[in-house]
Amino acid sequence: MTSQTSAVVPQSADRSAAATQREEWWRGAVIYQVYPRSFADSDGDGIGDLPGIRERLPYLRRLGVDAVWLSPFYASPQADAGYDVADYRRVDPVFGTLDDARELLDEAHGLGLRVIVDLVPNHCSDQHEWFQQALREGPGSPMRERFHFRPGQGDDGELPPNDWQSVFGGSAWDRVTEPDGTPGEWYLHLFAPQQPDFDWQHETVREEFRSVLRFWLDLGVDGFRIDVAHGMVKAPGLPDVGGRTEVQLLDNRELPFFDQDGVHEIYHDWRAILDSYPGERIGVAEAWTSTVARSARYLRPGELHQAFNFSYLTTDWDADALRTVITDSLEAMAAVGAPATWVLSNHDVVRHSTRLSGGDAAVAVPRARAATLLMLGLPGSVYVYQGEELGLPEVTELPAGVRQDPAFFRGDGQSGLRDGCRVPLPWSGERAPYGFGPAGDGPSWLPQPESWAKLSVAAQTGDPDSTLEFYRSALAVRRAEPALGAGESVTWLDAPAGVLAFRRDADGGSVVCAVNVGGTPAVLPSYGRLLLASGPLAVDPDEAEVTLPADTGAWWAV
Ligand code: GLC
């Protein structure tokens, strides 16, 4: 037996202009999520910013992604890390200026990278001028109609209008003090109290967001990731949920404030706006739904382009469960002519190296790499969250004093663990902040673990065994092989228990992807020319068979 990790990287890993211009670029795109606070800090205040991102665009291009999604950088008091927007047309000074945004877009486009920005239409910040005016003008004022203000229940209106719970814990309603100093109406906030929900039945709200879309499209963005896309329309009369009402992030139960049919009208409207601009601008739904088929409804002809596949993200490392969710996803998306999407990590969930390994450090990186090869082998579009290409683990031991996730402070049984995946990236050097900021020993808004020196971009670059070089190879192979990337289906192959194996066919050739999700090595036929493996493989000398260790995946050209 010989041991092989073969990374036969095609020489032409570079994207050609034609490739990025190809029609429907988003069907097979790899989209990299930048969480601006934690990506790169250009001015040394400990918080990442737009100039920091700009400086690192060549890194993203070399990584081999097609597009970047930027989490919010708009004017915001940062009660929920920028998902509380006070002004949708301004850049928060902590992140830079509108000129910085413009330059970032231009430079990204010059490098062949598309840029998608976050849009937060379900709610704004309590510092948004409309909400401030609504507070000042009191009950019955037209400004209050743009939000969900209601009188309370009980003799003195001292009880919330219904039993809805906030995703961050506690009631979804807060009571205001009226201008005359008396306790008054309640307003709805599905998230933090600093995030009042808009009332999307109000035409002015709809018109405002059409204008916000145009503002950023005019600036040159390639699309929008739509925050809480399933939440804007509430069931008429705001009926009680009844029974167990606690709501969690990614909650997929049927609830009177999520996934109501009325939201689809909004996306028809927005699609017409997106299509009125040149160059295929896209809309991506962050929609928590009960099934992938419900997610597909956001992608029917005339609606949005993609939706995050949270069913996939929340599936355990289990071969049968993965095969089921993959099959269901491909079927549901094919039924509406939309690409499937695949995602393992984002700024709201425990990083997948930690999550999939159940905290067992010995298997964390091998399993995460195998999961990456599976994800990148599937037909459709893929989302990569910053730092997963470095194999970063979740930071589980942040002291309470440094935490900022509002869910952490709302308590009520909410996990509030989102800070652990938001720790700033390590770029270089031996000491924190590892090149995150300009100064050798400058601040970072969350502390980085000491063990991250060896995980920095500089430490991994050029090391063929590193996770970073593995991602670079995988993305290059995916780009070079016509059978990988966009597509609608896979052909499942017979494989030993615990192994997922499928073939993908294209005019230019076929690729087999096999991943050992089980706990023991599996013997497989050698399918063809090994393109890439996520870890060492034992290859039979006559090359008829290959042993795929546990938590390992591979691609072969056939
Ligand atoms: C989305 C975002 C999350 C945010 C919430 C409220 O789920 O991904 O970070 O807290 O919306 O805007």
TrEMBL record:
One of its GO terms (biological process) is oligosaccharide catabolic process. GO terms for molecular function: alpha-amylase activity. InterPro entries: GH, GH13_cat_dom, O16G_dom_2. Keywords: Hydrolase. Gene3D superfamilies: Glycosidases (3.20.20.80), Oligo-1,6-glucosidase, Domain 2 (3.90.400.10). Residues 33-422 form the Glycosyl hydrolase family 13 catalytic domain. Signal peptide: none annotated. Belongs to the glycosyl hydrolase 13 family. This is Glycoside hydrolase family 13 protein. The lineage of its organism: Bacteria, Bacillati, Actinomycetota, Actinomycetes, Kitasatosporales.
